[in-house]
Specification:
There is one protein chain. This protein is of the alpha/beta class and 471 residues long. The chain contains 14 helices and 18 strands. It has an eight-stranded mixed β-sheet, sandwiched between helices. It has a four-stranded antiparallel β-sheet with strand order 15-16-17-18, with helices on one face. Helix 2 crosses helix 8 and helix 8 runs parallel beside helix 9. The longest helix has 25 residues. The N terminus is likely disordered.
């Protein structure tokens, strides 16, 4: 564990002079730097990725980012010009489901390719066991330098998320400039995503001779951070959320410029997704980690390749966060993760690039899961699970006083999924109810029990500073 803590022994990203220079560069440059240096690519170039030995992976997890607030997903506001351009010249998965609306549960599923009921990571004191086969371990075994830079305490090493990383740490927080605004009243922590980007930029500038896997877990959307330049859409809670997306979009564009200047774009696969979305009282709830409705579980998934796909490819079939790493590892010809619930979407991408899309009917239903009492070990588990099959979402919720509540939505007729059809579509409800009950009856995959961890006050205070209500 010591090598995870001592960053200076791995590369000199903590040098003050470099940090200051990078700060000045990243906050003042224009993102209009000329033509995309990547060559054009076709299906055969995608197939050739597995034989290449020079492709790096940048994985960006934008915490709390719902897909329907991005232009690439049809949003009218210009919240995400850089992400939209990435999708326009890459691969966009149009219907993507996160496996929970709470970070730790969702990230455990994403990293393992297993649904929450199979990871067993559903409560605040749960941690991933060492036997979990993590993507970072596969990258490291394949000769990649593996670096994780995270700003959310739910993915800290305490919970097992450091497995496979040579370096895994929270970036040093710099004071926020005076033009930065934070509108989430429950957040008390310092720093911003620029801390993570500066650390990433320093690493990239010292690693051009290596093959690397770099993970950034960003939090400015979660914390509703923006500045005067990104304050474009108003001042109510939902508007400020959009302002924050625009701010993070600009932050990521600056990191992209670092890749451009280092000559890394032609050999980097960029993966963009999120752990969950955010509710704005569509049905009376705000925030996340409460329910598994559309607004808190529909997230983006974008792939940018080491070459330009023009026009960009859209994958229409339903995908899930458990599919992300099976797909990326398959594209690169790396070892599999073993037994997973997700599956590689490589063949669907290839088919779409050849204008021969796989029928949506070939897709399998997926699940989103939340224990509604995850934060209090003294309360009995109270799961809610969504089964998403084509346009339908069936939600089964256990209630505080016992019993259950069922809801059914059809996104094809009701895109916001606000009209409950449970009383009028009995056959569909029955079929999805059986799937939900079968899902809830499954057990964690591990040979040993999921470890229960005792968090110290420092860790609890960090999580409370992010706005979570914990005992």
């Amino acid at each position: 564990m010591s090598r995870l803590r001592v960053l200076q022994s791995n590369w000199p990203w903590a040098l003050a002079a470099i940090a200051i220079l990078l700060l000045l560069l990243l906050r003042t440059v224009s993102i209009e730097w000329g033509e995309d240096p990547r060559p054009p690519g076709r299906a055969e170039d995608l197939e050739a990725l597995a034989a290449r030995d020079d492709v790096n992976v940048l994985f960006v997890l934008v915490d709390t980012l719902r897909s329907d607030r991005l232009g690439a997903y049809g949003y009218a506001r210009e919240t995400s010009p850089w992400l939209d351009s990435l999708a326009d010249r890459g691969i966009l998965f149009t219907s993507h489901l996160a496996q929970s609306s709470w970070t730790k549960c969702s990230m455990a599923s994403l990293w393992t390719g297993l649904y929450p009921v199979r990871t067993g990571i559903t409560r605040a004191d749960h941690g991933l066991p060492e036997e979990a086969r993590m993507p970072a371990e596969i990258f490291r075994d394949a000769g990649f330098r593996t670096v994780g830079i995270w700003r959310n305490g739910w993915v800290s090493p305490t919970f097992g998320f450091a497995q496979g990383f040579d370096v895994y740490d929270r970036p040093v927080s710099a004071p926020l400039p005076p033009q930065i605004l934070r509108a989430n009243p429950t957040v008390k922590g310092g720093g911003s995503d620029m801390d993570a980007v500066r650390a990433a930029a320093a690493f990239l500038r010292t690693s051009q001779d290596d093959r690397w896997f770099l993970y950034l877990h960003l939090m400015d959307v979660h914390e509703y951070i923006y500045d005067s330049e990104s304050a474009l859409f108003g001042t109510d809670y939902s508007d400020v959320y959009d302002n924050s997306i625009r701010y993070v979009d600009d932050t990521l564009a600056r990191l992209y410029r670092v890749l451009f200047e280092a000559g890394e774009l032609e050999r980097t696969l960029i993966v963009i997704t999120s752990d969950h979305g955010e509710a704005f009282r569509e049905r009376g709830y705000e925030g996340h980690a409460r329910k598994v409705y559309r607004e808190s579980t529909e997230t983006p998934w974008i792939l940018s390749l080491p070459f330009v796909v023009d026009p960009g490819v859209t994958i229409q079939s339903r995908t899930y966060n458990v599919d992300v790493w099976p797909t990326v590892l398959d594209l690169l010809g790396l070892a599999s993760m073993g037994e997973v619930d997700g599956r590689s979407r490589r063949n669907e991408i290839l088919a779409a690039m050849q204008d021969d899309p796989i029928p949506e009917s070939a897709n399998e239903p997926g699940f989103a899961h939340l224990d509604q009492t995850w934060g209090n070990a003294e309360l009995r588990p109270m799961p809610t699970v969504a089964v998403v099959d084509g346009p339908y979402r069936y939600v089964l919720s256990h209630e505080p006083r016992g019993g259950t509540r069922e809801e059914l939505f059809d996104a094809s007729a009701d895109p916001s999924e606000l009209e409950d059809l449970i009383a009028s579509d009995a056959a569909i409800a029955q079929s999805l109810r059986e799937r939900a009950l079968t899902y809830l009856g499954r057990e964690p995959i591990w040979k040993e029990e999921v470890p229960s961890l005792e968090l110290d006050e420092l860790e609890l205070n960090h999580l409370r500073a992010l706005g979570y209500s914990l005992p």
